[in-house]
Amino acid sequence: MVKASGKRKQRIKWSKLYTFSCLNPRTTDNDAPNQQLLGQPGFSRVVFCNQPELHKIKPHKYPSNYVSTTKYNFMTFLPRALFEQFRRVANLYFLLGAALSIPKLAPFSPESMITPLVFVVGISMLKEAIEDWSRFLQDMDVNSRKVKVHSRNGYFVEKTWKELSVGDVVKNSDIEHRRIPASGKEPTIKGFNFRDDRLMDKMWIHGSNVHDMIMFFRVMALCHTGIPVEDGNSKRLKYEAESPEEITFLIAAQEFGFKFCQRTQSVMFLQELEPSSGIEVKREYKLLNLLEFNSARKRMSVIVSNEAGEIFLFCKGADNIIFDRLADNGRIYQQATTAHLSNYAEDGLRTMLFAYKKIEVVEYESWNTLFTKAKATVGTEREELLEHASEMIEKDLFLLGAVAVEDKLQKGVPQCIDKLAQAGLKLWLLTGDKRETAMNIGFACSLLRHDMKQFHLVLSKEAESSHQLKAVEEDILSQIRNSYQEIVKGNKKDAPSALIVDGKAMEVALRSEISNQFLQLAVMCDSVICCRVSPKQKALIARLVKEYTGKTTLAIGDGANDVGMIQEADIGVGISGMEGMQAVMASDFSLPQFYFLERLLIVHGHWCYKRISKMILYFIYKNVAFGLTLFYNEIYSNFSGDDLYDDWYMVLFNVLLTSLPVIALGVLEQDVSADVCLQFPALYQQGQRNICFSWKRIFGWILNATLSSVAIFTVTIYILSPAALRQDGKVADLAHIGTIMYTCVIWIVNCQIALIVTHFTWITHVLIWGSILCWYIFLVLYGMLLPEHSQGGFHILIEAIGTAPMYWIVTFLVVVVTLLPYFIFSIIQRSFYPMDDQVIQEIKYGRTDVSNKPMWLREQQNSRKRTQIGFSARVDAKIRHLKERLHRTKK
Amino acid sequence: MYQFTQQSLPACKPVLTPTSVISTLFLMGIFCIPIGLLSLHASLSVVEIVERYDSECVPHQFRLNKVAYIKDSLIPKNCSRYLKVPKYMKAPIYIYYQLDNYYQNHRRYVKSRSDKQLRYGLQYNDTRSCIPEESNDGLPIVPCGLISWSLFNDTHSFFRGTDELRINRKNIAWKSDRDHKFGKHVFPFNFQNGTLIGGAMLDPNVPLSDQEDLIVWMRTAALPSFRKLYGKIEEDLEANDVISIYLLNNYNTYSFGGRKKLVLSTASWLGGRNNFLGMAYIAIGSCLIVLALVFILLHVKNPRPYGDAMYVSWNWKGIPN
């Protein structure tokens, strides 16, 4: 915890550097900054563009661009690293222990206490040093990256990043696009992933409604704001446009034979397929007017005239808008289109309708004067006039059909979300996008479905305009209450619910008075989508959810605006490679792709949970089992503080003889393999239910350790005392009994871990059995030292105990006796109360008959938690829907 | 390395199946019982005679004040005991003295010695660990410390009828102790010259490496009840032989309620007489077999089919997921 908060502090510092957020709050506090303070920390800077030399001298000297993320340098390493180490309670505790071992009264020799401490601290410091070194190398890499800097008269010279100074003008060579529509595997045209042979092979030109088809494609190819870009050697063109779906339309039109190839100020050139001849001809269309898209209009139109002088209006827009503006004879395809629309929407696609109309020249002329006038108007009524003009011409349309665009998320995102939902995670989508986009994304990744009950939290117009906080709060509160009532009343299983919150509403809802009610509602909903949220709000939401639910939160994001949220959540994950490095630098984990989250959580998260809980419990076991034997000995040594074991045995216990198998357990243990984890995401819930690290388990292990220690101690002393140890009549003394008992401890502790481990790699074997072997090797070597050093251990194995059959027989007996209770317990647990992973393990590894393949699949099916989000849930919903329909038609 | 970093090292995943569990239990049981029988047999073949003499050797008039008796050097400490050999005892027969309630493992006692002085003698003079028995009248004590100071000093001699049984008192200490821990050229010096006499005197003309009683005594025992080898009788004793023991009851265990015993014992390949080991083996072996049988019964009566999917949590009925 100490470390985490320290790290967090550091992170915040850096994030401020990246986002310059350290500048923001103060400037708002102080609206008119003092002239003298300008350029000082916390105030706005004066920057002389393209005059970097002015920044080399005061008062406008700013720090250089040299980046250093290292924690230490050569001078500070030792003191700082030591300070960091001894800030940890455990290390401090052991330091105290070591200090106490120096006075004479201590039962242990100072070496035996100081050596392990030095060892542990040394290893941690070495790790710190190596990490810092790699950070240094990373900085070097960043600092020495090249960039073109303007010197003068349009000439650019190359400079490294660290040489840049404030005022430099640089040439940015790689512009990053926000949402590059990635395609599937085939076909490999970017932004286009469509298969329909009738369209692709241009078979439609023989159909009956060729004319409408042509018009459909013309709308696609002409009604947009894009421009074509040469694409090197390819015959196909690439496009740039305001929105990704326009690019998609243009690419698709190109594929269907309507290539938009040039745009001048007023003319658009189209290379289109002549259906009668099948050859492509180049046509030009004069662009007369463009009625722009905006979120209120939800449509866009262009008015063009073709080579023959005919004037057309091409329009695309949202379904309800277009349906309202159709001519009576323009509704031929309405029924079919409606059906398509609902299908597309069901599949999470973004839909749009295409329509057109032919305009008589006279009609156009009169309208155009009105429109031009409206456009020329300056003032408040301009919008209104334009709106009015548009309304006049965008009517009596002829519906051509619908298009659907898939919001192509990153590869594997829907599958990943599906898996995460099955793993019992609750997903919140926080985005800065507007509500429509956010909902589309929600549909695309199955967070939203059409059969979900949607609750929208939006500020009403009146409340917004009233500017009174009280009224706004009342408004939101009543919305929250109503939604909550509705959920509570309805049966949750049958009617999944989604909460969609707008940024402005969110701002109110996150106020401390309302936030509890808001979170109460949000937690009830199956999915929550927050749109138009600011970075600050993202962080606030993450914090409030964490605090309110008390659950572990994970935030994943790719942009600088996610940094706050990533830092706030328990686990922060940054996606690298999309929008710069800020998110990655602030995160605990960085992933190149969103869908790797699935593996990170469901495979590695599950493994790690199992590993860490097993490891800690085992650690408790081994130290309790070992330590208690020392205490029992006190009963027999008049509580004088005598130690049964040689100091060096005790030093080596946690350093060498039992530490390595724990590492193997913590690094290599897998209860089930990675593919099984992925097939059964429900296994992840073992962690959420915390079945492996409950108090019951902790006390169970302490009990087991206590039993073990009692068994070790009593069996050893009852057998070895007071009769002779060997055939030559010699008896065992303190050193012998201590060594024999310690041998038993080493065997038991290492065999116990062999019973815990379920995944034996060669490393595990080497470390477990090697540890035991190590003990004997140590004993031989220790016995070879001069007696001043080895004391009781001198020649102990070779001369005294190793040659006594009693030693080996006792060891075996103690191992069997001690491990038996745990063994029996684990058999009973496994036979009668098996855990999920154990059954799956059995099915997977035990059953060899192929006939059980269906059962394997069935179990995968069964394990799917009835989720309300994710595409499996969508498929389920669809099946349910179809069944119902079938049922109804039967009737 | 790649497999390691990718967590895909080949591994064996032993699954505890009923068959493997039951056979493991059986095999272990079958393995343990013979070991137990062998151990028990070895232990039972050992003949052991234990004779407590600490109170019997105090004359009647001193029974109420044993400490006064033992502290009074004028009172002769001779004592004789008679033992009847219950069974034929084959040589070598080991003679031990056993002390009970004697905390030789007390921390202050255990540390009160100087291993370096024992080995190098007076050359080595850092004997702080021996305090308070490190010097007397300004001269160092060799061997120093409480352990050697409290050296056991009862002596025993054995007669069968009128013949004295020869007792071999050589090689009763570990060879490594004699060769490496106790100096061949280190002689007792200024030993037991103080006002408080603890235990035995040492012959100042015999090097420590040959003072085997001292070497044995210096091997501190782990428990408050312990035996130390005194010597070996190297002739067989027949059943019903009566052994008379003449001993000097010098050692003061009375002031702290300690008990003194004399033990005659043969030894098997497993050492002295100790039935516990064999019994424990037999018990645990039987336990394992019984458990195996119980598990067979349970498995037959109430089997959980191996890998039965009904036991996975998502198939539990009535338990909401």
TrEMBL record, chain A:
One of its GO terms (cellular component) is plasma membrane. Gene3D superfamilies: Calcium-transporting ATPase, cytoplasmic domain N (3.40.1110.10), HAD superfamily/HAD-like (3.40.50.1000). Coiled coil: none annotated. The chain crosses the membrane at residues 616-636, 648-668, 698-720, 740-760, 767-786, 806-825. Its EC number is 7.6.2.1. It catalyses: ATP + H2O + phospholipidSide 1 = ADP + phosphate + phospholipidSide 2. Keywords: ATP-binding, Magnesium, Membrane, Metal-binding, Nucleotide-binding, Translocase, Transmembrane, Transmembrane helix. Residues 584-834 form the P-type ATPase C-terminal domain. Residues 47-114 form the P-type ATPase N-terminal domain. It is found in: Membrane. Belongs to the cation transport ATPase (P-type) (TC 3.A.3) family. Type IV subfamily. This is Phospholipid-transporting ATPase.
Automatic annotation (TrEMBL), chain B:
It is found in: Membrane. The chain crosses the membrane at residues 20-40, 276-300. InterPro entries: CDC50/LEM3_fam. The keyword Ribosomal protein does not apply. Its main location: membrane. It comes from the Eukaryota. The keyword Transmembrane applies. GO terms for cellular component: endoplasmic reticulum; Golgi apparatus; plasma membrane. Pfam families: CDC50. Keywords: Membrane, Transmembrane, Transmembrane helix. Belongs to the CDC50/LEM3 family. This is ALA-interacting subunit. It comes from Coffea canephora (Robusta coffee).
